[in-house]
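Form 12-C: Joint structure prediction
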Amino acid sequence: MKSENKRLFKNIIEVLMKDKLAVAGLVIVLVFLILGAFASQIAPHDPIEVVLSRKLQLPSLEFPMGTDNMGRCIFSRILYGTRVSLYNALVVLAAILAVGIPLGITAGYVGGWVDNLIMRLSDIASTFPSSLLALAIVGIAGPSMKNIMIVFIFLWWAPFARIIRGTVIKIKEKDFVTAAVSCGSSRFKIIINHIFLNSVSPIIVLSTLRVAAIIMHLAAFSFIGLGTQPPQADWGVMLNDGRQFITTNPILMLWPGLAIMFSVFGLNMLGEGFNSALLPISGEGNSQKGVKYE
Amino acid sequence: MKKVRFIIKRIAQVIPMLFIVSVLAFTLSNLSAGDAAAITLRGDGVEVTKENLEAVRSEFGLDKSLPEQYLNWLKKVVKFDFGTSFQTKKPVINEIARRFPTTLKLAITATFFSLLLAIPIALISARYQNRLPDHIFRLLCTALATMPDYWVGLMLMFVFAVLLKIFPVISGSEMKNIFLPAITLSLAPMATYVRLLRNNLVEIKGFEYMKAARAKGLSETMALIKHGLKNAMVPCLTMLGTNFGILVSGSFAIETIFSWNGIGKFAVESIKLKDFPVIQCYIMVVAFTYIMLNLALDIIYVFIDPKIQLD
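Section 2 - Result
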C-alpha cells in the first residue's frame, strides 16, 4: 500500500511537470510564497513610513518600483501586501476546510434529516450573493478585512462539504467496510481513514482554485475601501491609492495590479495542472494526459 | 409531476434565504434606529440623558421584544417604507429607485456585449476545434478569467481615456460613455460563455441531426449556426441569468471606477457614511430581485430543457 502511494505520488509529479503552464504556475506561486514569507527581510524600506520629500519618484536602485504619493517605497509595500494577501487567503481556506469537512462527514455519515439540513444550508450558501452578505456584515460591524474574510468563510465551505459527503456515502456501504465492521472495527474509524485517500485529489484542486478566487475577492473589497484599511500595505488598497494618479503617474496602479494578476494566474494554472494530473476522468480532453490509476 | 415537485422544492429553498436577508437588513435598521434616537434628541436640542433616550426609544418601539420589532419592521418594508437617508434626507426607496435604471442600463449593455463577443468566438473555436483559432481564443479566455474586473477596468480606462482620449475619465453615467464600463463588465462572463458554448457546440457537432444538416448540403459553419447554436445556447441560460442577477445588483468596483452613479456605487458610499437605511434598503431590494430572478429562470428552464435532471 505504501509503495503504491509513493508510486502514485511520483506519477502525479511527473504528469504535473510535463504540463508547462502548471510548472509556470507552480514557480509563480513559490516565488510569491517566498516573497511573502520573507517580506520583512527582503523589503528595503518601511512599508508605511511616510516621507513626503521623496514622493512619486520613478523606479531607481534605492526604490525598485519607485515611491507612491506619500513617499513610501512601492516595492516594500508590494512585498508586505503579498504577505497580507497570501496569509488572509490561507486563513480563509483553512477556516473553510475546518467548517466544510466536518459538516460533509456528518451529513454523509449520519444521513437522514441531518444530511438534509446540511445540504439545504449548503444550497443557500452557494447561491447567496457574496457581495450582498459582505455589504450587510460590513454595514453592521464596520469595514475591516476580518469581516470580509468571515463572509467568504460563511459562503464558501459548501462545495468542500459536498465533495466529502459524496465520498463518505460512496464508501459507507462498500463491502470491505461491512466486512471490517463484522470483524469488530468501528465503521466511523474506517470511513475517516478512507476519506483522506478518496477525496484528497478534488480537495487539492478546489483549494488551489479557491485561494486564487479569495485573493481576487479580498483585494476587490480592499480596493473599494471596505476591506483592509489604509495605510496598511495591501494590493487592493494600493490599487485604489494609485487610481487617483491615473493621468499623472499610471505606474502607481501598475504594480499592485500586476501582483494580483500574476498570483491569481499562477494559482489558477497550478490548479488546472492539479486537475488534469489528479482527476483524469473529469474535464474534457484530460483523460489522455492524466495519471493512470492501475 | 416531477416538475411540480422540483418547483415546490425550489420555492421552499427561497424562503430561508429571504428570511436570512431580512434578518440582516433588520439588524441594520435596528442599529440605525439606536443612532437615530440620539440624533433626534440632539436635533430637538434636548440633552442626551439616559431617561430622554429611553423615552425616544419607546416612542420608536425599540423597547419591545426583538421578534415584535422584526414584525413591525417587516410591515413597513412590505409597504416599501425603508426610512429616510441620512445623506440626502429623502425617502430611501426613492433614492434607490432613482439610481436603479442607471445600473440596469449598464447590466443590459454588458450582457449584450458579452453575448455579442461570445457567440462568434465560440462558433469559430468549435468550427476550428483544436486548431490555431481555438487555441488562441482558449488562451485569451483563460487570461480574462484570471484578471480581476476592476484591474481590467483601470487598464481600459488608462488606454482609452488617458492615452487615446476617446472617452472621458469620468463617465458621469451618460449613455454615450457606457462603452468602457460595459465592456469591462462583459469580459469575464464572456470568457465563461465561450468555454461553455464551445464545448456544447463541439458535442453537438457529432450528433445525427448535424450529420443530416450537412448531408442536406449546408456547409459546416452554416450547419453550426443554423442547427447547433440554438441547442448549444440552452445550457448557457442559467449562467446568463445568474450573471445578469449579479450585474443588476450593481458592480461596486466598476461603478466606482467609472463614477457610474448606479446602486452599487451608492451602496458603497452609504457604507462609508454609515447611512444604514440605504444599506438596509439596498440589501432587501437587490436580494429580492436576485433571488426571484434566479427562481424564475430555474422554473423556465424546467420547461425548455428536456434533458434537465430534476433530482
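Section 3 - Comments
Chain B has a mean pLDDT of 86. Residues 2-43 of chain B form the longest helix (42 residues).
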